[in-house]
């Protein structure tokens, strides 16, 4: 139980950091990204760059039976959104797909999670208004 609580707190910390960066268009130092990427890899069981080739349905199926599935899906979603911000402008299809998949996951988490997140709501509003 303690390990599960710790894992959930770590996920929430990473999600908060990434959401803040996305909302405020804030640059995060490379060393911090490397740390969070390493933790994300441990938590999700996949490299954050693997998210480039993964869709929302695949992730939902992958974590469906896990007790912390909503937290993992939210972490995957914000990482997809972060990656969409980093994708070069010469690849608009990948950028749009990552943004759509991340938004889909956040909406799924909003509907199915027992936890309410004000940050998640602000991020979804931002994504919906910036289309």
Instruction: Classify the beta-strand content into a percent band.
Output: under 5%
Which parts are unreliable, with pLDDT below 50 for 5 consecutive residues or more? none
Apparent shape = globular
Helix and strand element order? HHHHHH
User: How large, in whole angstroms, is the Cα Rg?
Assistant: 14 Å
What is the number of helices? 6
List how many beta strands DSSP finds.
0
**Beginning-to-end CA distance, first to last residue:** 40 Å
Helical content (DSSP H or I, runs of 4+):
over 70%
User: What is the residue-averaged pLDDT?
Assistant: 85
Which structural class best describes the helix and strand composition? mainly alpha
* Biggest pleated sheet: none
Task: Describe the protein's architecture and organization.
- The chain is 74% helix and 0% strand.
- With 131 residues, it is an all-alpha fold.
- Helix 5 packs antiparallel against helix 6.
- It is globular, with a radius of gyration of 14 Å.
- The protein starts with a helix and ends with a helix.
Throw out a few tags for this protein:
single chain, 131 residues, mainly alpha, 74% helix
Brief account:
By secondary structure, the chain is mainly alpha-helical.
């Amino acid at each position: 139980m303690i390990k599960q609580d710790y894992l959930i707190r770590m996920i929430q910390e990473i999600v908060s950091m990434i959401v803040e960066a996305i909302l405020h268009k804030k640059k995060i130092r490379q060393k911090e990204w490397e740390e969070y990427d390493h933790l994300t890899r441990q938590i999700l069981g996949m490299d954050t760059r693997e998210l480039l080739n993964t869709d929302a349905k695949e992730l939902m199926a992958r974590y469906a039976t896990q007790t912390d599935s909503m937290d993992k899906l939210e972490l995957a979603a914000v990482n997809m959104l972060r990656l969409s911000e980093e994708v070069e402008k010469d690849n608009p299809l990948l950028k749009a797909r990552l943004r759509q998949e991340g938004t889909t996951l956040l909406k799924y988490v909003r509907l199915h999670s027992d936890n309410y997140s004000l940050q998640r709501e602000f991020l979804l509003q931002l994504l919906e208004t910036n289309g």
